[in-house]
Amino acid sequence: MNRTTDSTAIEDAPRRRSRPRIHRAWIVAAVTFVTIIGGAAFNSLPGLLIDPLHSWFGWSRGEIGLAVSLDMALYGLTAPFAAALMDRFGIRRVVVVALAAVATGALASVWMTASWQLMLYWGLLVGLGTGSMAMAFSATVTNRWFVARRGLVTGILTAAGASGQLVFLPLCAWIVDRHGWQPASVTVALAALVVIPFVWLLMRDHPADVGLAPYGGAYVEKPAPATGAAARTVRVLFDAARTGPFWLLAGSFAICGASTNGLVRTHFVPSAHDHGMEITAAASLLAVIGVFDIIGTVFSGWLTDRFDARRLLALYYALRGVSLLFLPMLMGPAVHPPMVFFIIFYGLDWVATVPPTLALCREQYGEDSAIVFGWVLASHQVGAAPVAFLGAVARDATGSYDVVWYASGALCAMAALMALMIRRARAGGPEPAV
């Protein structure tokens, strides 16, 4: 009996020693984090380049804003199809192609001479590339590799976009100020290219590829590649569109996009510059938003694991709306303490909405949640796109961004009400739309 026990212990010993101390899921999450930083670098440029492109080519801010609008719309509309393509062809392949598209668009824009080329390179190529690495990418990785700590991991991966902003905004602002806009585009292209080897060597599509269970869960076999990715994406949209929670989630997230990417990311720097602030100073403030965005998003993920996601969403939108109503009064040539307070406050709230929104998608739509979230993310960018364009048109027409700030604050109040209207999912699924 003792001999058998000793033999079993000896046989089990190598397996115990070979077990990794860090679960592979955290390595995949780290690669995902870096990838999103590389892909999101280009999103730091629009607000910095509106004035330089206007001066360099003589294009109106509306023309430039239209290209930014196309980029944001494609970013959102690509996301749900990218999630389905990842199910069909694997995460690695889709992300590598997406990074190559971002690098190509960024490099090609250096040689553009007409506004339609800005639409093609900046709007189309970069929009498709960054959309394939959008939050649906994070949702796919989180759903496959994690059972425990999903809210926390969602917050960390969501913060990757803000981390890219933190790294690239001050750098690109300095490059634009000292050397012009072309070297800034080249810098972003190189950032996307550098990430490709990390994705190819370290990313894995499924825990079963390396013989592991998801973090905090039981081992499951890797499913066969899904066929009809586009058809499935559209089918999931039609199924979700027949339920009330989808429209409430999509509508509130559209307002989220309008009040962040469409408004602040695109127009904060030129608006501050209108009030006499140096571009580098305004870009640094936007980068500081990224610092507190990381803190706020990770903390929001922690809260989402513990509290009602609906109430969290309502609180986030209400606080954001109040802060935007005060922003026009804080603009000036110098950075004063009230502006610093706004930056901190707004930064904590920037994309804190993502973890509870994703949690509600998961609660309502189960296995299809990543694709549903992709469509909800599409609404985020579709909401951002018209504001990126109309904000520029409002500036051309009135010489000020004030009316856009006030309108966005009012929309955030509407989003808070929509979040409170979402009902908990029943055992049979979400309720159909009325």
Q: Can you describe what's shown?
A:
This is Major facilitator superfamily MFS_1. It is a multi-pass membrane protein. It holds the Pfam family MFS_1. The protein has 434 residues and is mainly alpha-helical. The chain is built from 18 helices and no strands. Helix 4 packs antiparallel against helix 17 (369-398). The model is unreliable at 1-18 (pLDDT under 50). Helices cover 78% and strands 0% of the residues. It has helices at residues 2-18, 24-40, 46-57, 61-89, 91-108, 115-131, 135-145, 150-179, 181-202, 229-241, 244-259, 261-274, 279-304, 309-330, 337-349, 354-365, 369-398, 402-421. The chain has a single domain (23-208, 226-421), classed as Up-down Bundle (Growth Hormone, Chain: A). The N and C termini lie far apart (69 Å). It is globular.
Summarize the structure.
By secondary structure, the protein is mainly α.
Topology record:
Blueprint: H1 2-18, H2 24-40, H3 46-57, H4 61-89, H5 91-108, H6 115-131, H7 135-145, H8 150-179, H9 181-202, H10 229-241, H11 244-259, H12 261-274, H13 279-304, H14 309-330, H15 337-349, H16 354-365, H17 369-398, H18 402-421
Helix pairs in contact: 2-7, 2-8, 2-9, 3-4, 3-12, 4-5, 4-6, 4-7, 4-10, 4-17, 5-6, 5-9, 7-8, 7-17, 8-9, 8-13, 8-16, 11-12, 11-16, 11-17, 11-18, 12-13, 12-17, 13-15, 13-16, 14-15, 14-16, 14-18, 16-17
Number of strands: 0
Instruction: Show unreliable segments.
Output: 1-18
Could you name the CATH homologous superfamily? MFS general substrate transporter like domains
Structural class of the helices, strands and pairings? mainly alpha
CATH class: Mainly Alpha
Give the biggest beta sheet.
none
Summed up, the domain count is 1
By CATH, the topology is Growth Hormone, Chain: A
Portion in helices: over 70%
Distance between the termini: 69 Å
Rg: 22 Å
Instruction: Determine the strand fraction and express it as a percent band.
Output: under 5%
> Shape, please?
globular
Q: What is the N-to-C succession of helices and strands?
A: HHHHHHHHHHHHHHHHHH
How many helical elements?
A: 18
CATH architecture assignment name: Up-down Bundle
Chain-averaged pLDDT? 81
Keywords: Membrane, Transmembrane, Transmembrane helix
Organism: Streptomyces pratensis (strain ATCC 33331 / IAF-45CD)
GO molecular function: transmembrane transporter activity
Protein name: Major facilitator superfamily MFS_1
